[in-house]
Structure formats: C-alpha cells, structure tokens
C-alpha cells in the first residue's frame, strides 16, 4: 500500500531521469493543491520557495466629489453624443469616395481612437476611485493637498493625488503611490524625510507647507 500523498507510476511513464526498464517503479510525490513548489538553485543547492506575484495592477485614485462628478459627466458625453457625432463624421467622409486621399476620414478615425481610449481610461478610473471630501486645512500632507517642499535642494510646488483632480491646470501632480508621494504622506511643515528614486538614488525632502488644493 503506497504512503498517502504518493503516486506509483509504471512502464513508459516511469522515466523522468534517464532510462528505466519497463515495469520499474517510480515513486512520485503528489503536491497538494495550493502549495507552491520549491525550486533548487543548481549552484548552491539551496531551496527557494516560489512566491506568487499579484497581477492586479489597477491603482485606486483619490478624487473629490467635484472631480468625480466632472469626470462622470465627461464620460457620459463621450460615450453618448460624442461617440455618435464621430461615427456620423466617419460615415460622411466615407461617402465622399476614395479613402486614401480623404483627409477628413483619417482625421475622424484618429479622433475616434483617442475618444475610445479616453472612455476606457475614465471608466477604469471611476470604477476604482475613492471619492471623499476635500482634506482638512490642517497642514498635514495627504491626497488633495497642494504641497510646497524642498526636494533635493530645489523648492517645488505640486498637487498630491490624481492628475484628474487638477483638471486643465498645468500644475505638477504626484500620485500618492509614487515614491515621493508615499514618503511624505502624514508629514507637516518642517518635517523632513528621504525617498529612493527609480534610479536608486536617495532624495531628501523637506515640507514647507501643505494646504487643500482649489481648482
């Protein structure tokens, strides 16, 4: 009687490591479901457990209710009247004849591509966004705050949060999940910290001020 967790394999199946005579016995352990295998490093002989990596890369953006309503209205327009208008322009241009030399047709198709990309972007953003009130004016760095800080010796002013909060403003925006954004959350004027840039360099940051962003 084989031990629990062991499968007996005979004949042609019993040859994972070179030649085995027909009918020879190979004891092959059965790995219980949900257990990751261990992989042996052929140089050191050590075992290193395989760690599963999450494939969910969708990030959650913080939005004010005002920003959420504005983006929702934009999405409704693009996916409704906006999409219908572009389709009508494409059909009109198509009816004019040869598409190779039809500038209006190609321009409408390009705009259609950009519109569909924006619709997908807004749909994902609004489905995953965390909607909340504007942050309190307490000087503490958090999403939705306009931050003035000395970064690597240079004074910078930027919005912490989603680019969509800023709307059409040209202000610099850092996500709260970025290395800089994550390192300064919860700090206030006079606090200092450091963060590691993507190139591995350590960057110093000193908070000068933080106040709620007003579009």
Automatic annotation (TrEMBL):
One of its GO terms (molecular function) is RNA polymerase binding. This is Transcription elongation factor GreA. Residues 62-131 form the Transcription elongation factor GreA/GreB N-terminal domain. Keywords: DNA-binding, Elongation factor, Protein biosynthesis, Transcription, Transcription regulation. PROSITE patterns: GREAB_1 (PS00829). The gene is greA. InterPro entries: GreA/GreB_C_sf (IPR036953), TF_GreA/GreB_CS (IPR018151), Tscrpt_elong_fac_GreA/B (IPR028624), Tscrpt_elong_fac_GreA/B_C (IPR001437), Tscrpt_elong_fac_GreA/B_fam (IPR023459), Tscrpt_elong_fac_GreA/B_N (IPR022691), Tscrpt_elong_fac_GreA/B_N_sf (IPR036805). Belongs to the GreA/GreB family. SUPFAM superfamilies: FKBP-like, GreA transcript cleavage protein, N-terminal domain.
């Amino acid at each position: 009687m084989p031990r629990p967790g062991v499968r007996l394999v005979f004949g042609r199946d019993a040859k994972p490591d070179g030649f085995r005579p027909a009918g020879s016995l190979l004891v092959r352990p059965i790995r219980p479901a949900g257990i990751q295998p261990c992989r042996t490093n052929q140089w050191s002989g050590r075992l290193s457990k395989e760690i599963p990596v999450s494939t969910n890369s969708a990030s959650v953006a913080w939005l004010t209710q005002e920003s959420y309503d504005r983006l929702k209205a934009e999405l409704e327009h693009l996916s409704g009247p906006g999409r219908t208008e572009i389709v009508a322009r494409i059909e009109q241009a198509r009816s004019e004849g040869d598409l190779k030399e039809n500038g209006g047709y190609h321009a409408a198709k390009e705009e259609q591509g950009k519109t569909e990309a924006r619709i997908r972007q807004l749909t994902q953003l609004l489905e995953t966004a965390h909607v909340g009130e504007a942050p309190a004016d307490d000087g503490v760095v958090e999403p939705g705050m306009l931050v003035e800080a000395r970064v690597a010796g240079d004074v910078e002013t930027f919005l912490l949060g989603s680019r969509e909060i800023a709307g059409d403003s040209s202000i610099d925006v850092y996500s709260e999940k970025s290395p800089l954004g994550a390192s300064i959350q919860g700090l206030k004027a006079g606090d200092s910290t450091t963060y590691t840039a993507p190139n591995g360099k350590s960057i110093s940051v000193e908070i000068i001020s933080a106040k709620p962003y007003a579009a």
